[in-house]
Design brief:
It contains five helices and eight strands; from the N terminus they run αβββαβαβαβαββ. With 191 residues, the protein is α/β, with parallel strands linked by helices.
Length: 191
């Protein structure tokens, strides 16, 4: 059994604030570039219905446990200042992001998975959302890819098992380059 670290909303906010360490104020810019760190939260979608109980086995909805996890994600990120939420077009990712999007008054930005998806999304976050706080809801394969594309070199060994749903990754992108990664767990522990 893996050892899990579960954080409260207050602890999560502290961790995000500590790892962001903005150079100046949150809204300060130099020319066109932000001088504040960009904070990217990344999660795999919550628990999905098994293929045999889903209307479309390729695009299942969340289970009851998945809905509870999506609500927990909204609760713990309620004070994180999420400004943009990226989701793939599948039911399970949109449903995972929906409670937080509604709570934060943020519309989902749907990002279809295509060739170069991870690199394109990472570049878009670095350029168009510099200095902001964003959430990316993806899949067991796309989440590690996006983390790597954001510049986390230690992500090479990162792998998500198909049965794991409780990982929450925080990537901090300081304005001067580089990337920091924190991995925590939220909601009910998955085996």
């Amino acid at each position: 059994m893996r050892r899990a670290v579960y954080l409260s909303a207050l602890q999560l906010a502290f961790l995000a604030a500590f790892t962001s360490l903005p150079t100046l104020g949150a809204d300060d810019t130099v020319g066109e570039h932000s001088t504040s760190a960009t904070t990217v939260y990344l999660v795999r979608h919550a628990e999905k219905a098994a293929g045999e109980v889903s209307d479309d086995p390729r695009d299942p909805h969340l289970t009851e446990a998945g809905e509870a996890r999506a609500n927990e994600l909204a609760r713990i990120l309620s004070e994180a200042g999420i400004e943009t939420i990226f989701s793939t077009p599948f039911h399970r990712t949109r449903e995972t992001a929906a409670p937080l999007a509604q709570q934060a008054g943020v519309e989902l930005t749907i990002t279809p998975i295509a060739a170069g998806y991870s690199a394109a999304l990472a570049q878009r976050i670095r350029t168009d959302y510099a200095g902001q706080t964003v959430l990316v809801v993806g899949h067991s394969n796309t989440t590690p890819e996006v983390i790597r594309a954001l510049g986390v070199t230690t992500a090479d060994s990162l792998a998500l098992d198909e049965s794991e749903y409780d990982d929450l990754f925080i990537v901090t992108l300081p304005p001067q380059g580089g990337a920091w990664l924190a991995r925590i767990h939220f909601g009910a522990e998955t085996p």
